[in-house]
Specification:
Length: 293
């Protein structure tokens, strides 16, 4: 099995992450940075897919905006009950429809496919941190999505619907929060992907994960609209770090020290879930060695 190491230095991993031998010799950070760059480039191949994704997302943005306009116009007293204006709520809903684009499932599918074909055994032997390598690939995909999907979508939505912009003091915490949101999405996908080592199909786990995120992250319904007892539970879970925290910072519902505290909450959960992923990997490696994998 060790004979595959040198060949692995010259081969691509995943969707064509071709790293030269010079990069491999240049140190860990260079090869991870190269992976981000190559993945970013590879995602630009499918131009028509990009166009249809933007159009589909724009329809969702419009639908979410109109839904909350209808709710606020129904006479339920929503602004006075929540302290959030119609413009802020519409902005929250539209940004949520854009943010979902950054949480791809490519890592989950790719790792599960590698496990089913047995190629994961060779990947685990290579001189990289397996989890961090896939995190870099996810960053590459997210950067491409941000530039070619989210930015055009946001620009069009801002010009057409006058979305609320964040205050100057909330820009930096929002950017940090967005980074941790993507990292949290990756860690959850990675842990689900690890189940492929024990189960033939993980589609059910993937569906359950997505359902929990939709209900508990504030992606469709802001968490401040949930009953107080439910809010008390959800505020300790990592899911709000994917949608509720960055979106609340953007519209100004959370600001100042409270915003930085929320970013710290995301950071802690990111570290915990990354550590959990490393623990699972270590366990799987021991199992593969024991069984002669």
């Amino acid at each position: 099995m060790g004979g595959g190491w040198n060949a692995g230095f010259r081969q691509s991993v995943g969707t064509g992450c071709r790293l030269s031998r010079a990069v491999w010799r240049g140190g860990a950070m260079r090869k991870y940075a190269a992976c981000i760059a190559v993945t970013f480039k590879n995602t630009q191949v499918y131009r028509m897919d990009l166009l249809f994704k933007i159009l589909g997302s724009f329809l969702l943005v419009v639908a979410m905006r109109e839904t909350w306009i209808a709710i606020y116009g129904s006479g339920t007293g929503m602004p006075s009950n929540t302290g959030v204006s119609l413009q802020e709520m519409a902005t929250y809903a539209m940004l949520s429809s854009m943010l979902v684009l950054l949480f791809g499932q490519s890592t989950l599918y790719e790792i599960a496919d590698r496990v089913s074909t047995g190629d994961v055994v060779f990947e685990l032997q290579k001189p990289w941190n397996y989890q961090f390598f896939y995190l870099c690939k996810e960053i590459g995909v997210s950067l491409s999505t941000l530039l070619y999907n989210v930015v055009p979508l946001f620009t069009a939505s801002f010009l057409l619907f006058r979305m609320k912009l964040p205050t100057l003091g909330n820009v930096l915490p929002f950017l940090m929060s967005l980074l941790f949101a993507v990292a949290l999405g990756f860690t959850l996908n990675f842990l689900i992907a690890m189940l492929a080592f024990s189960f033939t199909e993980i589609w059910g786990f993937w569906f359950m994960k997505n359902t929990v995120i939709q209900l508990c992250s504030g992606s469709f319904i802001p968490l401040w609209l949930f009953p107080e007892k439910m809010q008390a539970v959800l505020q300790w879970l990592p899911f709000q770090g994917m949608y509720s925290i960055p979106l609340s910072i953007w519209i100004g519902k959370v600001s100042g020290a409270e915003a930085w505290g929320a970013v710290g909450f995301q950071a802690v959960w990111t570290i915990v879930l990354l550590a959990a992923g490393q623990l699972v990997l270590a366990t799987l490696n021991r199992r593969l060695v024991t069984t002669g994998g």
